[in-house]
Amino acid sequence: MKMWQRSLILACAMLALFGGVAYAQAPGLSPVEFRYTGNRTAVWIVAQLHTLFGAFVLGAPIFIVISEWLGHWKQDPRYDRLAREVTKVTVILFSMTAVTGGLFIFVLLAAYPQFTTWFINQFYLVFAVFYPALFISGTIVLYAYFYTWDGWKGEKKGRHIALGVLLNLICMVTMFVINGPTSFMNTPVKAEGLSPQDILAAASLWDKIANQSWMPLNLHRIDGNVAFGGFITGLIAAYMYMGAKTQEDRAYYDWMGFVGSLIAVGATLFQPFTGLLLAYEMCDYDFSFCPYMMADQLSMFFEMQGAMIGLLFLAINYYGWLSLKRVEGAEKVRMTVLAPIVMVALPFVMMAVMNTYWIPDPKSLAFLLPLVLAPFLIGRFIPLTVSARTVIKIGFLMIIVSDAIWLTPHGFAATGANMVAGVEIPSDWEFLGSMPAKLSAMFTLVFVTVVNYILYNRVIKQGTILWGKIDFASQFVLIALAFISIWTMGLMGAVRSLVKKYYHTYSLVPDLSSESFTPTLSYSAWWITGITVIFFAVVSLAVIVALRPSSSKSHAPEGSPVPVRAK
User: Fold this and answer.
1) Is the pLDDT score of 61 beyond 70?
2) What distance in Å separates the CA atoms of residue 305 and residue 491, rounded to the nearest whole number?
3) Overall pTM surpassing 0.90 (yes/no)
4) Domain locations in the chain as residue ranges
5) Rounded to an integer, what distance in angstroms lies between the CA atom of residue 244 and that of residue 237?
6) Among residues 27, 34, 5, 257, which one has the least CA distance to residue 143?
7) Res 163: pLDDT
8) Whose CA is closest to 389, among 471, 325, 461?
9) Per-residue pLDDT reduced to its tens digit, 133-166
10) Alpha-carbon gap, residue 53 to 97, rounded angstroms
């Protein structure tokens, strides 16, 4: 895509944004009925696509700049090449973010004109001033960062990295600003003894932005965006690896896929905790949110979330296992027997402890911390060891067990109302549907993954990596990881929106339309799958356009081939 084409797309998107804000001030707007999808689903589709593109565009610059800095610091051309290639894809997807953002404003105005008018007026400075200014600034800095890559080399490299840091600051502020209105719809400002309308009339713009779920949502989206960007980087690497014509290119894209997945995994490990923090703050705001999500109409959504997260962690660890096969000397690496013992014991011990002492009770930590830290603190003094492959195999087993625990529902019906014996969990197994069981399963997934990556780090320190010699199936795993992460983001985005029940903005603006109901998981899954396929196709096309073989080769560092054998 040429510069003038990108500029035209961005100009149209900005006109759409400004036009939408201006149009929202017009009185007497009547809603439009969207055929085939309905108004609510139409808004959902466009909003979810915009969120997915935005997640990558906001997350990718973080590791782009880190990668460029590492390349400059280590004098390793691979990092610079990775940063540049991901930037090429980011520039194209940035245009799509702008297009879907403008489309979202117009679809929302068409479907719900009264609510949209009210909502934009509540955050007029955000939508009319702050967000456009940040968006335009981000656009200018992104293009300047991309087009100065060749000119700012050598002594000027620090200047280019500083420009990337500025880009990340703008992206971060943009996310924080737009998360204000987004979180406000779930947890608007409130105070005891006053009606929501009275509070809203007296609230400042900052009060509305800094609502109870604003900061937890920011934290959850930071690590979510970084993880998402890492998985998409792995997707890019997998495509290019499959099409590589030379061993040098295969070696490079094998390395790129590993780095992308490593970044994604590191960020993914924090997501359960920031997600729990977000859920906790929402439940603290209004306790009815919690049973509605976990034990009522949205409970099946969380069962599906458990399946997807379990599949995600299984694929992550399977990729790590395949990665071991390209390391000479991996079979010689061993680990303390305490590691697999703790893997097996952790979910059951944690479940028992939490039924008595709820985290973060100091008594619960007194039991769990020594258990978790035992392999790392005293494992080196234990003479009994097992092979790396044995540890990974036991890890696979515990991921499956943990996912089975997570998937065990409170009951076999979507709601506990009118429960009969035929749809109840047998009394001997009821504990598997409890919150302690779910948290134990989640912590086990994280623990197994951490152990496996510590093990892999030991392997690569003692052996020799044969970049480009990885099993070809690993590339399909990278593609699957990207697809799973996209689908899961769509699922949990739907949950966060549906928790408002029959409100546009909870407790303030009710949705009185015929579409104001909680859809079934099957209905939602069909649309989530469709949205995922569309996003996946657009990203794939962007990779083809941005990283054609001729383009890739032209920017490969001359005289600095990617080593096939490396520590």
Assistant:
1) yes
2) 7
3) no
4) 3-329+463-566
5) 10
6) 5
7) 94
8) 325
9) 998 999 899 999 999 998 888 888 889 999 999 9
10) 5
